[in-house]
Design goal:
alpha+beta, 8 helices
């Protein structure tokens, strides 16, 4: 008889496992509030906020929203609501949180409304205008409408390379860190709008507006404009809804502020994560 071959098992070493992912800021109420508060503080002191006031004044005429928000900004920010069922009622759409901020469900509105054509049936691509240096506005619903700077008598200038010839902007004016887009949010093509979907849609609108096929040099302008963006505001006048994105240094989008507009009250109601 021969001894059977027996393989003696060696010591069993524990296999390394990946460390559990670190919770994001949205999972902690304190970090979530601090992140939103920091964004709001920066936003209301930026030219993007002033451009937003100009857009709200034109998108909701007769409500005096620019004057109201200019006078009562501090009070309104202090009364911001965190996301809950009451906040969803104020916005008019279901809203919840994910790892990148607020998420919005437009299902109930997609069936009831078709994608709106430009106002008055006027066809034509949207164009970008600059009511203030450092931020630009793109109106996809009424390309011919100007959003005038609040408190200023003059109409805003077209972006360089668009419309009539304008003086060359200074280096500071050429660095646009914010954009306000007036649009039908159903045009984003998705039922649920999270931060990534909102950023993709904003990218499409900016690219489609600034890029001209006949002018290859505009590709560099599109890349520069997208890279410079730190704040994106999307306003849907039909829904009475505004959504605000922060784009951080790592190019991660986060929806940290939203507001709903009740045309009977005038003042918007703000919601944060």
């Amino acid at each position: 008889m021969t001894r059977p071959d027996v393989t003696v098992p060696g010591p069993r070493w524990a296999t390394p496992q990946d460390a559990p992912p670190r919770p994001g800021p949205m999972s902690d109420p304190g970090r979530r509030k601090a992140l939103a508060d920091a964004f709001v503080a920066e936003f209301v002191s930026s030219t993007t906020w002033r451009a937003t006031l100009a857009v709200l004044e034109g998108a909701f005429p007769g409500l005096g929203m620019a004057a109201t928000l200019s006078r009562q900004t501090d009070e309104l920010w202090r009364t911001m609501d965190a996301v809950d069922r009451k906040a969803a009622a104020k916005l008019g759409v279901p809203v919840w949180l994910d790892d990148a901020g607020m998420v919005f469900d437009l299902s109930a509105h997609l069936r009831a409304r078709a994608v709106r054509a430009p106002l008055g049936g006027r066809a034509g691509p949207p164009r970008a205008s600059k009511p203030y240096a450092g931020a630009f506005v793109i109106d996809t619903l009424d390309p011919l409408r100007y959003h005038r700077a609040v408190g200023g008598p003059r109409a805003p200038r077209d972006m360089p390379g668009q419309g009539a010839a304008v003086p060359a902007p200074s280096a500071a004016e050429d660095d646009d860190s914010g954009v306000v887009i007036v649009a039908n949010l159903a045009s984003a093509g998705v039922r649920v709008l999270d931060s990534a979907a909102l950023w993709r849609y904003a990218d499409q609108v900016v690219t489609g507006t600034l890029h001209e096929v006949a002018r290859p040099e505009t590709r560099a302008r599109v890349r520069s404009a997208l890279w410079a963006l730190r704040r994106v505001v999307l306003v849907d006048p039909d829904l009475g809804l505004g959504l605000c994105l922060q784009i951080d240094a790592a190019r991660v989008p986060r929806c940290l502020l939203a507001f709903g507009v009740d045309r009977t009250e005038g003042a918007p109601r703000f919601v944060r994560p």
